[in-house]
Amino acid sequence: MSKKPLEQLGIQTERVERIEGIECPEDKENFEGQKILVIGGPDAHGVSMAVASTKYLEHKGAQADIYVGSPVIREGRGATHPGAFYTKTIPELNVGGYDRIVIADIPLDFRNLINSEKAIIQLDEKVRKDRQKRGLPAIEHSTFYLDHHSTTKFSTFSESVIIKNVSIAEACKLGGEKTKIARIGAICDRDKVAMKSATEEEKELAKGLDIAVRPITEKPELVQFLNPDSYGRYKHDLGEWMRKFEERVKKFKPITLIRGNKYEKFYKLYAQKYPFPVPDNYSSIQEIEKYKKAVKEWEQEAQKRLEQAVERLKNEDWDYFRKEAKETERQLNKLDIPVASGFGRVIVVDTQDLTKSFSVFKLMEQAIRNMGVDKFPYAIAILRNVEDIKMGRPPADLISIIRFAEREDIPSVKKVITDYFLFWRGIF
User: Fold this and answer.
1) Distance CA 62, CA 178 (A)
2) What is the DSSP letter of 275?
3) Low-confidence residues of the chain, pLDDT below 70?
4) What structural domains and CATH numbers belong to the chain?
5) Phi, psi (5° rounding) for residue 23?
6) Phi and psi of 136, rounded to 5°?
7) By CB neighbour count within 10 A (0-12 exposed, 13-18 middle, 19+ buried), where does 43 fall?
8) H-run or E-run covering 347
9) Pairing between β-strand 161-165 and β-strand 143-147 as defined by DSSP bridges
């Protein structure tokens, strides 16, 4: 068999493998010389898709900037998770000087799908008007929306917005080529297709990336800023509240309460009748101001760490993510608590603080909606045995606790479990 022309000249050609069954309308576009803003979701998968899309655009001759906003920003302005992106970030987003926008892995806000669609169209119009002001001709497709979530169902369309909704996490990016960055991101997202053939090396990198996009320190709590007297009174009242609640719980069968979310309803009704002690009632104006300042600094550090992870991923600094995985594995917070399935290890998971305790677990946002936490501070999942061999985790008992993001008046999950051990033992 005769050699191909390039092989006859002694030129080595790199074989690019493509993801099967994915249409890529972006391949028909000309991005040469354009300035493009790529906005990604704040988790490891969203970051990966933003970075992979940026590298694709740069290969096509474009100048691409990445923006990812940390989910811990309390006011939400600048955050790129669905709850804040469409209502708070897009209206204030400065797109001056950009020719196109790419939105990667930010699902429509299920609480208001129509408004999410409108926000995307408004952002697209803003970009088009800015280009017009600069005296440049209109671009046919000025916004690309990339997603893989089942909630992505548009009811209205704009000719200038291309919607690329794919079925697998690895393809939620510009370009159909298989890349290491996209694959690691898909493993972070626990995508079944990616997980099926994931190697130990890939799992470790995914674990490190999952950790690297999250804050490295605990979020400050208001109780840390109370003077000794105030803290003492708060601690006493909180203990009394928990003790009385525990006595009430013991009148019922714990297992019966847990089944069917009856426990959550019980807690909710009790808390409505007997309000939970909150640090705000024990603090001075000065203490609150110090607390707010500390939280703001923590948010800024979280954003800086997220941006560092983006830059490291773009440079494919895989040693950095290996180090993150190993360091967190050593510091993972574990407790020994007697639980329903026997005395064993319990991994404490707090999705509000998004700290090292979170490790590589990814609890679905759906659980927050199901638990009705707008009035109930904690969503306590049914205790179950976890044996996730695919991610290299040994068997463990897991209490999944989701803390409502907008509640500032409750202690961290970690604090609740460690300070009120008898309370948890009474339930489980």
Assistant:
1) 20
2) P
3) 1-15, 74, 76, 249-250, 252-265, 267, 328-428
4) 15-212 (3.90.1640), 228-282+332-427 (no CATH)
5) -85, 140
6) -105, 145
7) buried
8) strand 342-350
9) parallel
Neighbours of 158 (CB within 10 A): 17
The full length of the chain comes to 428
- Span 31-90, pLDDT tens digits: 999 999 999 999 899 999 999 999 999 999 999 999 999 887 767 688 888 888 999 999
DSSP symbol at 95:
-
Torsion angle defined by CA atoms of residues 413, 419, 423 and 428, in that order, rounded to the nearest 10 degrees: 60
Q: What was the pLDDT predicted at 375?
A: 32
pTM of the complete model: 0.73
CB neighbours of 14 closer than 8 A, spacing ≥ 6?
none
Amino acid at 378: Y
Secondary structure element (H or E) that encloses residue 257, with its range: helix 254-258
Sequence-ordered strand ranges (E) for 114-254: 143-147, 161-165
Residue holding tokens 């509640």?
407
CB atoms within 10 A of CB 132: 11
